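Hi support team,

I'm filing this because I wasn't sure whether my run with adenosine-5'-diphosphate finished correctly. The job status page said complete, but I'd like someone to confirm that the output block is well-formed before I use it downstream. Pasting the exact inputs I used:
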Amino acid sequence: METFGDVATEIPKILVVDDRKENLVATRKALKSIDADIIEAESGNEALSLMLHHTFACVLLDVQMPEMDGFEVATLMREQDQMKDIPIIFATAISKEEKYVDQAAELGAVDYIFKPINPNILKSKVQVYVDLHVKQQQLNELNNILARNNDELERFAYICSHDLQEPARMMGSFSELLEKDYQSVLDDKGKNYLNFVRKNSVHMQSMINDILTFSRVGRESIKCEDVDSNSVLNEIKEEFQKQLEETKATITSNGLPVVQTSPTLMRVLLQNLISNGLKYQKGNVQPAITVSATEDERNWTFSVVDNGIGIDPEHKDKVFSMFQRIHRKDKYPGTGIGLSTCQKFVELYGGNIWFESEPEKGTTFLFTIPKLTGKEQHVAA
Ligand code: ADP
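And here is everything the job wrote out:
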């Protein structure tokens, strides 16, 4: 094993196929300074059998061999999943004519060299494929590590927040009971402390719920179905009904479409963006939210426009980072998880999310939902 940073890779292997022993010896000599294991085969059959059991960075394949020639070996290699992507360098003494070179190219040969082989040229050609193989291995390993870490992290967040739900609820319920049953015993200072405990348990429950939603994104399999975004919006309006009446806020839209996506994605996105639009307000204006959607060949683009306090463009990355908040917690309560959940969801389904804003004038959040090819999209009335 070789290590690169924290990533370990196997020593690369090169397969040299030639029916003549002296050629195998000469090739081994030419490649001796390359950091790789050189494995030899004296026939096409032996080479194919070796390729079934090893992963090779490249194969040096003699064209003229008895029984099975190099082209036949290459044809069989291209039919096998575990061999079809191995780079082939053909080596031949006689077939310099164009048609052989073309045939080699059609079989996916990455190179074609003529005997007598110049050892330096051979070495530098093989080195390129060995380096490429090592880089590919490192990339695959890094991807695996990343996927494993993400998975562990999400599982950890899920288990933690799931198990924290109950104690947080208990804290809330018991402080309510304490306030109700022991009113007469508590002085103002005691009531204040209790209020503080209750408020924090509510905040903790919101955090736990938001982390659970965040960690659930991606745990369920990706599924698309017809989602009527108009109906989703109407359900959300009903949820906010009380708040809309109290603040005289309005939520308007103009015929939102039916799109092929996850219903949970649509709900989480509209719910979070509308809730933020209603929350981050100046206080002296009636909150007004407008939801609309436009389409082009590839995407639906949804926008949620508010007339609130706006966001300074310098915070453009911060707002999508977990737990990052740019406005004061006492004035605008929140967990700083909503937009990161939105971003994670949208990106999982191949879309994007961003905002345009002018401080004090309002913010427009936009997100895209890629269209599925071959599916009709309809606009709901
Ligand atoms: P929070 O629970 O804090 O609202 P979000 O992830 O939804 O968390 O938002 C992150 C931060 O982005 C918020 O704390 C707020 O500072 C800012 N923000 C989000 N939406 C808006 C908006 N519509 N107008 C102004 N600021 C916003």
